[in-house]
Amino acid sequence: MKEQQSNNNVIVAIPDQTEIMAEAETEKKSGGIFRFLFLAGGIFVFFFFFGVMQEKITRGNYGEERFTHHLALVFTQCVVNYAYAVLMLKLVLDQGVDHTPNRYYAVSSFTYLAAMVSSNKALMWVNYPTQVVGKSCKPIPVMVLGVLFGGKKYPLVKYFFVLLIVIGVALFIYKDSGDKVEAMSFGFGEALLLASLTFDGLTGAVQERMKSEHQSKSGHMMRNMNLYSIAYLGVALVATGEIWAFAAFVGRHPTILGQLALFSVASALGQYFIFMCVAEFGPLPCSIATTTRKFFTVLFSVLFFGNALITRQWLGTALVFTGLFLDGLYGKQAKKPAKD
Question: Where are the alpha helices (DSSP H) in the chain?
Answer without folding.
Answer: 17-59, 70-91, 102-122, 128-135, 139-148, 156-173, 188-214, 218-240, 242-252, 256-281, 283-305, 311-330
